[in-house]
What does this fold into?
Amino acid sequence: MEKQIIFAGNSNRKLAYSIVKNLNRGLGSIQLGKFSDGEVAIEINENVRGKDTFIIQSTNNPAEVNLFELVLMADALKRASAQSITAIIPYFGYARQDRRVRSARVPISARVVANILEGVGVSRVITMDMHSEQIQGFFSIPVDNIYASNIMCQRIADEFNPDELQVVSPDTGGVIRARSVAKTLKVQDLAIIDKRRERANESEVINVIGEVENKVCIVPDDLIDTAGTICNGANALKNKGAKKIIAFITHAVLSGDAIENINNSEIDSLIVSNTIDIDDKLKKCPKIDVFDISPVLSESIKRIDSGKSISELYLK
It folds into this structure.
């Protein structure tokens, strides 16, 4: 690993420090700031010629600032003759804008982001629970999409007997993810929340398909934004007799009235990873429990260096 240097943007310094601590090393020296007019200013403060470099940067809110920091860091490393540039993007923003529904006059923003990253010299991307897996096809460089569910499931397995549990997909599109979680937890059945979405960030629960009465319901999803959907689903599950509801989410976007919605909902516990720094929100919502995913990202860096498989981290 002598040829590796790891840099981090400002989006989640706490996670970046945890990753390099697991590797018994420090972060590369970089100056991150802004000019007086608000433009992002980047300067690499050490020699990266011929080195394998890594940039740790989620592209959450403020998405435009965090994304542009990532882009400018990659460009700076390329111009400084880095041998390779791996972008570690724990939360890949703009992933929900991955298609033109009914040919609406909108951009395919996820494709635009992919083009930009490749254009500035990124040679590999590592992300976690990308909202749409087909986004990997927008890139012509390797993309490793790491699944957090198997890692996060362990605490559920340690606390509950499989007979107590019921895994519930929050919608029909999440069935594959829910089946994977059910398999990991050794839960035989699956329930599905059938819902209708009238507009962005709003949904109406129509029905709960499957048996949830007297069960501890595990509701897995890739992200939670305004929390309206998951809270409506939790209310429906409780109305159907669910004993306890544990939402199991990788990315805690938590925008708008999310905290208020969660506090007032039937959700008993919200387990999220630290792909996004939410320290400012934790004190406002005692239901949230944060799970550290830095070990798996640290191991990914090791495996890239040694040429080992990354998929082995979650395909167990």
Q: What stands out?
A: The first strand starts at residue 4 and ends at 8. The radius of gyration is 20 Å.
